[in-house]
Amino acid sequence: MRNEAEVGVLMMFKQEIKSAGSLANFLRVRFTDSQRFMLLCLIVGLSCGLAAVAFHWVIHSLFDVVWHTAIQSSKPLFVLIMLGAPTLAGLLVGVVVQKWAPDAAGSGIPQTKIAYYNKGGKISIFTGLWRFMLGAVYVGLGNSLGREGPTVHFSAAIASRLGRWAFRDASRVQSMLPVGMAAGIAAAFNAPISALTFVFEELLDNFSMKALGGMVVAVVIAAAASRTLLGEDPVLNTHLIGDYTTSGWMFVALPLGLLAGIIGYGFTRSVLGLRLKFKEWKCPKWLNPAIGGLSCGLIGLLAWQLTGYVGEAQNSVFSIGYESLELAFQNKLTLTAITVLLILKMFAVVVTYASGGSGGLFSPTLYLGGMLGALAGLVLTQVHQFSPWIPNFPDTAQVVGGCVLLGMGAMFASVVRCPFTSLIIIFELTGNYSLILPLMAGNMLAYGLSRRLQPVSMYNALIMQDGVNLRSLPAYQGVQDYRKLPIQAIMTYQPYTLFVKATTGESLKMIRETNHSYHAYPVVDADDKLCGVITLHELRENSTETTIESLIQNQDLLVINQNSSIHQAARAMVSRDYQQAPIVAPNDEQKLIGWVTMNDIVRQQNTLEADEA
Question: pLDDT tens across 213-234, in order?
């Protein structure tokens, strides 16, 4: 029998639950804001960890079925399966993305950044579900992309949904997104420390102990779930051979860093360029990923034919392909095979990502860097055999394994542009810390060269290519950015336009009805070709029967190339005393891309000055 005090407490407790009306409201009543946040971080860490493990398992199980079915079949059927599987996956992705899940294409990291900065951290749980299913099917059926980017996206969706369930404060909802992002990376790579540094380098603009505390909780839980279900080993189940002592051969990190910087730049430009071609192509958009899948199948079969390997190494261009990377660590690949795999894997990744497939770039970037390092290691050892000029030169396997690690770090720094993460993630993936000095040198060299050649990082360039304005993103603040970054980083996409054949009266009426009263407007013809610019003042001071065409004849029109820097655009506008200018395509000055005003540029400069104050 309970005493009266116990009964009273129980009744009060039941009354609180009843008055709360739901579990979410009950949590708000019983816990402080900070307590709810930490409790939610625990739930997010467990949820994201389990989801990441399931994603890993589905991809590998699906591809194992495809590959072993194909390899046990006759050669014609093998070819048919390895062409058909990635093509079918691409077709499914294309149809679903076009009809139901437009945010499920690509890697998911650009979409996560857009959600954090432009949507208050809100990602639909259905977007996360579609991302999980499409990413698993696309990569699992053999397309040459990775699982880490999609894991980040659906983990962020889980955290966003839980945040909206538990919090009413918009800032708290937004703060849950980096927690999910960190948990996803930690579980996908089994690399908890790298998960934290990546979130701060790629997403957040400042170091916050409050944000760090929540992310640490989620990362620990997610990594623990991943290790419990998948094992303690890192993603790459191999370790470098022997112990490394400082030696002259490690200077290979410098040319390797330069090569990674150049190749990483070429890789980035290839993805962006081909992706733009697919966007502009008149083919139905839902068909593009299937074309990418078919291309991946052809490239993978070509690699299989040229390398002639028996066993798991045959599938290295298909799907994630870490099997051959592990063989490279062990010096079990020939120079010819490494060269073939490096070149063809790059082609496969470029076409599958650019065509709109659902998969990430982390794994492919590490793969390409590893193969580049293995190539450099083999060349170095062969040169040394002819001219043994380096004292205490290790055996070939040790040098090649070390170069694979150096190449992975350098390529990650070049493409992903997170230099600290590029150092730490290599340690966590390989379990080896003995090459820290050459790794730091090569990574920073690759990062610096890549940034100089391409000021806009891969993920931000993808966001810009999709017509999203990045003014609010922290990566676009600073002197270097103001002077070097393209004007499209801060321009307005799809500006409001007026028709060249319309009269001033018709134009003013349309402006009033649509509530688009601006200082000036770009003017286009029936084919959306840029014809000129007209100000609101010019529309008002002329007769309502006057056509816009007559007002802009012989106009001294200033147009700005979309690849021009913010600094170049500002100088051009100041020199002509213009307050606004249309942004046009590099090869067509009549193709209107966007619109920039002097206020946009001044706002960017004011942000810079506020940060420096």
Answer: 788 888 888 888 888 877 665 5
Residue 537 tokens, joined: 């003042």
Q: Is the pLDDT of residue 580 over 70?
A: yes
* DSSP element (H, E) containing 596: strand 588-597
Please write the tens of the pLDDT for every residue from 330-370.
Answer: 888 888 889 999 999 999 999 999 999 999 898 899 999 99
Give the residue among 186, 166, 214 at the shortest CA–CA distance from 48. Answer: 186
CA 135 – CA 48 distance, rounded (Å): 15
**pLDDT of 200:** 85
Domains in the chain with CATH codes: 23-230 (1.10.3080.10), 248-465 (1.10.3080.10), 477-612 (3.10.580.10)
Angle ∠(406,323,354) on CA atoms, nearest 5: 80
Give exposure, 472-500, as e/b (b: 16+ Cβ within 10 Å): ebebbbeeebbebbbbbbbbbeebebbbb
DSSP 524: E
As given in the structure block, the two tokens for residue 94 are 């294309």
Burial class (CB in 10 A: 0-12, 13-18, 19+), 440: middle
Cα angle 455, 460, 462 (rounded to 5 degrees) comes to 110
Query: Do 220 and 187 contact (CB within 8 A), yes or no?
Result: no
- What pLDDT is recorded for position 372? 95
Task: Look at residues 147, 450, 134, 169 and name the one whose alpha carbon lies nearest to residue 293.
Answer: 134
> Which is it for strands 580-585 and 588-597: parallel, antiparallel or unpaired?
antiparallel
Residue 428 tokens read as: 């966590």
Integer angstrom CA distances of residue 140 from 144, 253, 402: 9, 34, 30
d(CA 532, CA 558): 9
DSSP 502: S
